[in-house]
Amino acid sequence: MTDKRIENINVSAEQTIITPNKLKELYPLNETMIDTIVAGQQTTKNILLGKDKRILVVVGPCSIHDVQAAKEYAQKLKRLSNELKDSLYLIMRVYFEKPRTTVGWQGLINDPYLNNSCELEEGLKQARELLCFIAELGLPVASEALDIVTPQYIQDLVSWTAIGARTTESQSHRKMASGLSSVVGFKNGTDGNIDIAINALESVASPHNFISINPEGQVAVVKTKGNTNTHIILRGGKAPNYDVASVRDYENKLQKLGLPRRIMIDCSHANSFKKASNQSLVLKSVEDQLLAGNTSIFGLMIESNLHGGKQKIPQDLSSLKYGVSVTDDCLAWEETEEMLKQFANNIAPLYSA
Ligand SMILES: O=C[C@H](O)[C@H](O)COP(=O)(O)O
Ligand SMILES: C=C(OP(=O)(O)O)C(=O)O
Q1: Ligand 2: which atom is nearest the Cα of residue 328?
Q2: DAHP synthetase I/KDSA domain location, by residue (predicted)?
Q3: Residues 314, 330: Cα–Cα separation, whole Å
Q4: Where are the chain's structural domains?
């Protein structure tokens, strides 16, 4: 007999989960957290607009897979941020959603137990609990918005947002970003295409309409006002793109389109050939460019963890090494601290006037 099913042929299960409002009731904000987020959103905007001359540094693990290790990292970063606050504004990379080139672990929200059980509700709970902890510490957070529904659950705790290289050209991501309250950075494409990131700036500045969920979890049409607090992020492509000539080229492109010449440099990814130790070379080039008078580079991204390197997720999770990345190669905390202190010290003359 002919199988006449016409839908859900490739769907194996469907499960309703907690609503955004219910998750927020479980992990509510207090005054300290709200103060952290307001300051984080406002300061990143001021740096983007050039009103605050400090360099924004988005630094932290490639991905969060262990909430305890992330809390330990956040405590260290908070201390360092107090120390370097005259020239650098440190904001922690707290990335819960990983875009993959093909397949692989997709982050804490998607698979919090790292065993393909994909307990997404538990992932959302762990993510929100961690964000509340970091906000309570007084440290602002940066995250990538990859899934277009999850912002309803956690975005109130995020002060800066990335749209990744694999989704910068996606209309759905641009529409979602047009409604975000934070500054949003768009990466160039994995092949190095910068035009898709520049086009994204124009798209997200406009109001949009799209279908998502509301805080009660009902399907809703979201109408956005458009977000003009946006910028491009140079992450390298077929070749690195942080050098003086590339940066000038992108500044000119932005200027020709009447867009603000504001650029963040990602020291990792294709700019480092995915080798964590190369991030210091990128940082050195940024330092030289700033000292030579560059005013378009306002921010940096660095991938760093408690311990250096990376590891494959083992079958036997008891052999997972604590504080080591399960995605991209990361700098160790001590190297990160040393590198940022040196950078802050070297660019200090720019802040002494
Ligand atoms: O930032 C992390 C990775 O570079 C990104 O998620 C892609 O990873 P993959 O190429 O290993 O899938
Ligand atoms: C996935 C990331 O970067 P990209 O989109 O540049 O590959 C990331 O920053 O974690």
Answers
A1: 10
A2: 43-340
A3: 18
A4: 20-348
**pLDDT digits over 43-72, tens only?**
999 999 999 999 999 999 999 999 999 999
Q: What is the ipTM of this complex?
A: 0.97
Ligand 1 neighbour 62 (Cβ under 6 A): yes
What single letter denotes the amino acid at residue 162? Answer: A
For residue 303, the ligand 1 atom closest to its alpha carbon is: 1
Asked if the model's pLDDT at residue 2 lies above 90, the reply is no
Q: Are 177 and 163 in contact (CB under 8 A)?
A: yes
20-348 folds as: TIM Barrel (3.20.20)
What single letter denotes the amino acid at residue 164? G
* pTM as predicted: 0.97
157: CA distance to ligand 2 center in Å?
A: 20
Ligand 1 lined by 314 (C-beta under 6 Å):
no
Closest CA to 144 of 118, 177, 171: 177
* CA–CA dist 234, 263 (Å, integer): 7
Question: From ligand 1's centre to the CA of 63, what distance in Å?
Answer: 10
